[in-house]
Amino acid sequence: MVREQAGRVLAANLRALRDLGGLSLSELARRSGIAKGTLSQLESGMGNPTIETVFSLSNALDVPVSSLLTERLDPDVVLVRSSELEVLSSNAVDLRMLRRMDVTETVFELFDQRVRPGQVQHSSGHPGREHVVVTSGVLRVGPPEAPFELGPGDYVCFPAQQPHTYETVGGPVVSVLLLEYPADAGPPTLGGFCGASGTTEAHART
To answer: What sign has the CA pseudo-torsion 88, 93, 98, 103?
Structure first.
């Protein structure tokens, strides 16, 4: 049921954004590198998108990921059930989009982020700032040469333009990720966003 609901939301948003941009399925396939047949399945609500797929669409359409994953509603009260959210996964990270907030000229995207041990997430950098709150586990995050070590309840905010990494210390980590970036900067690129970039084996730190 969760996947069906998330699939319907993605399908509706994808069709609307493609129509708004005047793009054919063939042109969107060319821009995103996603097969036309796969796009057709996504627009029909039948697809099973990965993090890479969603971020490729985000970049091709030049919209935040939240524009694809959230319903176009603006109620006074917003209640989000974690059990009802689609999970986007990479080798090391599971992301759930909780909310997108447009505040004047700034976009905030709120994620439930789970980081698995044994892998390192690398980001080459992207516009804006990253805010991270750890709720369980221990996480190293920030510049590769001098990362911050966060335990439960710890928070860090850092400029995201420079390379940075995410790595667990010991067991898995549950955290909240808030992306903050200028609305005119466009969404973070696939290679720049920590939750969607490639992974390498964890290595010893001295």
So the answer is: negative
Please state, in angstroms and rounded to a whole number, the distance separating the CA atoms of residues 198 and 174: 20
Q: How long a stretch of residues is the chain?
A: 206
Q: Are 168 and 139 in contact (CB under 8 A)?
A: yes
Q: How far apart are CA 101 and CA 42, in angstroms?
A: 25
Phi, psi angles (nearest 5°) of residue 167: -155, 135
Angstrom CA distances, 90 to 21, 38, 54, 159, stand at 28, 19, 12, 23
Under the banding of pLDDT at 50, 70 and 90, the label for residue 5 is low
Q: CB under 8 Å to 105, separation ≥6 — which residues?
A: 182, 183, 184
SS3 42: helix
In tens, the pLDDT along 162-203 reads 999 899 999 999 999 999 988 776 655 444 445 443 333 333
pLDDT-wise least confident of 51-55, 73-77, 100-104: 73-77
Q: 3-state DSSP helix/strand/coil percent for the chain, to nearest 5?
A: 30, 30, 40
